[in-house]
Design a protein that fits this description.
By secondary structure, the protein is mainly alpha-helical. It has 13 helices and no strands.
Amino acid sequence: MNAWAITKRASFYLLVLVIVVFAVFPFYYAILTSFKSGSDLFRITYWPESISLQNYINVLGVGSFPRNFLNSVFVASITVLLALFLAVTASFALARVRFRGRGLLLMTILGVSMFPQIAVLAGLFELIRFIGIYNTPWALIFSYTIFTLPFTVWVLTTFMRDLPIEIEEAAIVDGANPWIIITRVFLPLMWPALVTTGLLAFIGAWNEFLFALTFTISNDTRTVPVAIALLSGGTQHEIPWGSIMAASVIVTVPLVVLVLIFQRKIVSGLTAGGVKG
């Protein structure tokens, strides 16, 4: 191996190291800060000198944060289930059923996702109040599903369009109806795409703040992003930075675990969509 190849490889690994440090360091420092208490919070250190669980005790033992955490789990999970169910059935129609205006409908679905949240906030607020689900988890599930569907429909339609037509024809010959084709034939082949879109939808619902702040007003219905924001009250010296960092770590860990568990399917789903689309 010549000097140029060695330099090129070393530069590549150095770049990867820099990207990893920039990506991981904020989370590492949040974990480090969450174990500090008192005046240690304002001391800059990059290695744990003492460990205190008081911040985690304050977050989990005082107030409604555990309830807010369960609210986030419920809202994000139901949003993913609804979005995937509607997206799979819609993508089957858009990918496999020939009808006039199919391309225009797909572009319209994609265009809907381009609207910022603030642009539809007032109208969505009035709709939620009219339906009667204001200050309930269903208000968040309803709004999150609306904003999640365009992405999931577009990705799953692209993936389903490239599945072999022979599989569907063989199922039709065997007497399978469209529902059997979707659930028994296509779903087993679509697991990488389902995991990828489902996880991205879960992360979006888990981290969403604007709708959660607008459509809920009580501690019993708030989700964790709003709960963390409400922890930071008072002046700069009165802000409980340790509790905020502990809450942020508690909220982030489930996402990290999900990504680590499904990382292979996420990569295969993204690359399959990129190659086939």
